[in-house]
Structure formats: structure tokens, C-alpha cells
Amino acid sequence: MPHLNGHAIHPCNLTHQNSFSLEGRLALITGGGTGIGLEIARCMTDAGANVIITGRREEVLKAAVDSLGEAAHYVVNDIGDLASIEDMVAQIEAEHGPLDIVVNNAGINLKKPALQVTDEEFHNILHTNLNSVFALTRACARRMVARQSGVILMISSMAAYYGIDRVVAYAASKSAVEGMVKVLASEFSGANVRVNAIAPGFIETEMSRTAMNNDPDRRDRAMRRTPMGKFGQPQDIGHAAVFLASDAARYITGASLPVDGGNSIGF
């Protein structure tokens, strides 16, 4: 066994850092210009990955890439435009090389009593949060399966774990994503393509702060059932994404990881 300064080094420790590294990997992160998506991108670049972030607002993406450094690039894309997805993935791989990781982070929400939600509103949420997620996953997975290597990450929600009032369309979309993770993991595992989800609890972003401040009762209920007694930070999701994308999680697939301060098991 190797020694350092007279102390034995366990063989596992020799590869510990490398197992969590994303050095040489290329990641695509949707909705990567702000909030959780930006922190996932930041954590992945810190772990050695090159990242491509997508979104609709070029000025936001450009500012994000400037803050991330040379390892980051952006592509302007509306993930809801399903017809554009195949060409976007082909363009990214032609310009930057094969994708190793895809993070389906982009999504929209609607807080409204269920009886007031229109068919159009329900459809719009499912289109962005489910249909586009599947379309992008399919385009990337087709290439990953052919290469016999890849990681696909979905961003789920506590709304898929228990009933949260006034988010029926959002909860339906995230519950469907959770089911999709299991099916795709079952189908793709033989090709060495792993599929997992991260289920954020109540994470403190500019958007969530505004929403919670406008609904103090919901904010207080969320805090009461979170055993750690605080809201999470976007980098908490970023660190979980790095772990699940890394070789340290090489035997994990079909899982949904709550990053929630215990909210999903709180009372």
C-alpha cells in the first residue's frame, strides 16, 4: 500500500478526486443563463467540463458565458420549438464535439387554482416541461447510445413527490419526467447511458424569492416542513449535478435525488 509522510494511503483515495472530475467532458445545459441552470453550469466548469448553455435571450446567455469563462459557450434556442432540436444538437456536436452530458433544466411554472387552469395553459406547461425534454433527450440519447456512453439529467421537483396546491400542470409535468427517468434508464443502461433526476426542494433564487414573498403562507409552510430549517442555494443543485454526471455515480441510474434539506421527508 502506498505511503505519504509515513501514513498509509488507501487505494480508493488515489482516485477519489478523479472520480468526481468532469475533465474533458462536454455538457449541454438548457435554461443555463440564470438561476439553477447557471449554477449547474458553473459547478460543472469548476469540475473541468466544457459547457454549452441554451436559452431564448442572447444577452442573458452572453453575460452568463462571460462570467463562466473560456470553458463555456452558448446557443440561442427556444426549447419549445421541437422542430429545431435535432438541428441544434447536430450543430453543437459538429462545432464542439460529442456531448457527454445533457441537463434538462429549462422549464416553466404556473401557480393557479386547478379549476381555473385552461386547456391552453395546461398544454403549454406540459409542452415545455415534458415534450421538449423528451425531444432533446431523444436527440442526445440517440448519439450517446451509438457511442455507448453518456449521462442524462432531468430536473424534477418536490411537486412530483407530494401534493402542492395551485401547481397542477407543473406537478403533472414533473411527475411524468420522473416516470420517464425510470423507463429511459431501463432502456439505455445496456448502452452505458445513465439517466437520473434531481428533485430540488425550495431553492433560493431571484424568482423563488419573489414568489415566496408574494405568498408568505406558502413560504412559512415550506420552511416548517424542511428539517434543516433553511432554503437551499442554487449551487447545492449544481454540486448534485456534478456528482451524478461524474464517474463517482457510475453505478447510479434511474434514481431521483432530492436536494431539499429533508423537505420530502419532513412533517
TrEMBL record:
InterPro entries: KR_dom (IPR057326), NAD(P)-bd_dom_sf (IPR036291), Sc_DH/Rdtase_CS (IPR020904), SDR_fam (IPR002347)
Key words, A-Z: Oxidoreductase
Top-level taxonomic group: Bacteria
Coiled coil: none
Enzyme class per UniProt: oxidoreductase
Domain Ketoreductase: 25-201
Pfam families hit by this protein: adh_short_C2
EC number(s) on file: 1.1.1.47
Molecular function as annotated in GO: glucose 1-dehydrogenase [NAD(P)+] activity
Family, per entry: Belongs to the short-chain dehydrogenases/reductases (SDR) family.
Record NCBIfam families: PRK07231.1, PRK12826.1-2
Protein name as annotated: Glucose 1-dehydrogenase
